[in-house]
Amino acid sequence: MIVVRYDEKRCCAMLVWMTDTRTFAQLADAIRATSGPVRLVGVDGCGGAGKTTFAQRLGAAGGWTVVHTDDFATHDDAFGWWPRMLTEVIEPLSQQRSARFRPYDWVRRQLHEEMVTIEPADVVVIEGVGATRHAWRDRLALSVWVDTPRDVRLARGLARDGAQLRAFWEWWIAEEDRYVASEHPQRHADLVVDGDPSEPLPDDRFAVLSAPREEPARPASPR
């Protein structure tokens, strides 16, 4: 397992003025250097954090397929989908078998009729909130947490989906808070990525944090 962490006593003072950046090609090479016939990489983070962009760039650097948890979540079920993803994706790929599933259609609000097939490969990237959950964390070659402030995430979500979906986004964030408070994926991450770096970076680079920048607020009451 790849571990990318820092000794706080040695590095905290330096991090005040120095930003640690890496290239996606470097990360892809490090993943390739790990052992195992099939290496699953989990890219986790809350909605609007930038994890899809990160996963797509990593997948492009490595030539790897990206599977999205959004193909399993629904408008009414933010996190109860995980047993289906475990059975249909994680377990078969871990056993070098093809994964087959029906993705959720967010426009029609139902599962697609056609099946998606993901063939086993040296590396497959699992992306989305819940991608590094406890149920399969020990099967991941690398766990990534993309960390972005809550207000930035909400602003990105509303800019993409429209202000009319604010109520949905507020519910979704509350559901994410419960997941993070229960499973602490950011604490178990091998690599914490800055989803809102202070300076723009080229598309082939990303910024690394020494630790998550925030803990989620207390979960709100269910809607």
Can you put this structure into words, describing what you see?
The protein has 223 residues and is of the alpha/beta class. The protein has a domain at 8-64 and 123-208: P-loop containing nucleotide triphosphate hydrolases (Rossmann fold, 3-Layer(aba) Sandwich). Helices cover 32% and strands 20% of the residues. It has six helices and eleven strands. The strands form four sheets. The protein has a five-stranded parallel β-sheet with strand order 3-8-2-9-10, with helices on both faces. A two-stranded antiparallel ribbon has the order 1-11. Strands 4-7 form a two-stranded antiparallel sheet. Helix 2 packs across helix 3. The longest helix has 18 residues, at 166-183. It starts with 7 loop residues before the first helix and ends in a 15-residue tail after the last strand. The relative contact order is 0.22.
Secondary structure: elements and pairs:
Layout: H1 8-15, E1 20-23, H2 24-32, E2 39-44, H3 51-62, E3 65-68, H4 82-94, E4 99-101, E5 104-105, E6 110-111, E7 116-118, E8 123-127, E9 140-147, H5 150-161, H6 166-183, E10 191-194, E11 205-208
Parallel strand pairs: 2-8, 2-9, 3-8, 9-10
Antiparallel strand pairs: 1-11, 4-7, 5-6
CATH fold descriptor of the domain at 8-64 and 123-208: Rossmann fold
* Lateral arrangement of strands in the main beta sheet: 3-8-2-9-10
The CATH class of the domain at 8-64 and 123-208 turns out to be Alpha Beta
Shape: globular
Classify the secondary structure makeup into a structural class.
alpha/beta
Task: Output the helix-strand order.
Answer: HEHEHEHEEEEEEHHEE
CATH architecture of the domain at 8-64 and 123-208: 3-Layer(aba) Sandwich
| Range of helix content | 25-40%
**N-C termini distance:** 39 Å
- Topology, number of strands: 11
Proportion of beta-strand residues? 15-25%
Largest beta sheet, briefly? 5 strands, parallel
Annotation field: number of helices: 6
Calculate the mean pLDDT score and round it.
88
Mind telling me the CATH superfamily name of the domain at 8-64 and 123-208?
Answer: P-loop containing nucleotide triphosphate hydrolases
The Cα radius of gyration reads 17 Å
Stretches with pLDDT under 50, minimum 5 residues = 1-18, 218-223
